[in-house]
# Entry
Amino acid sequence: MARISAGVATSHVPAVGAAIDLGKTQDDYWKPLFQGYEYSKQWISENPPDVVFLVYNDHANAFSMDLIPTFAIGCAETFKPADEGWGPRKVPDVSGHPELASHITQSVIQDDFDLTVVNKMDVDHGLTVPLSLMFGQPQSWPCKVIPFAVNVVLYPVPSGLRCYLLGKAIRKAVDSFDRDLNVQIWGTGGMSHQLQGPRAGLINKAFDQSFLDQLIEQPQQLAEMPHLDYIRHGGSEGIELVMWLIMRGALDQNVQVKHRFYHVPASNTAVGHLILEH
# Structure
């Protein structure tokens, strides 16, 4: 049977992708950040997944203000990098896993979570930057990827508790898939940041570290945190952190922290990163 073996959380800052693409990872500004992922590259080379279920948010590339699903699962064979206004990233196309994606869709919908099935979409930096951080710059991505887009752009957005429980439903779905697959679930986005208004540039290190602590040790309690607290303490874009709760909900209550990393600044935000095993 398929199994979820580990969870990965990471920020998906677009400037990080640009630093990789332009060969700036060893510049003084960027080097401390990329050093924080050296262990991660080694870990994933020793624990290679067959499939990554990658939770991210689209940034008005696959979806527009005309149509924004709360939860959308990519069931296609292939997903191309999106053109976000300066041309697509020069990274490999993403190979999906339609069989597992369809199975998860069937199971999760039967568990009363409404998903939007997407059979064609381009994937932006929200998905490709985490892949680059973990796998580097390969000729092709070394595993299949199921994109799972969450609306954290236009209110109303799903609650942390809804995301946490959805993670549990995804775990149940994967466990019931009758093929021997090693699946990792990744939650991306965050951490504290705000891109506009009087608080533009906000970074709250204390909130970020507290979120990481609770995500590891008290996920159920963290899942009940109201949206207003994300906005008040983490900035308007800090709400992206609810996507990490999908990842955490798919893991056991008790987890082993294989790696924890936090760095400020990365462009106009903080970068957080966790690797959790059962």
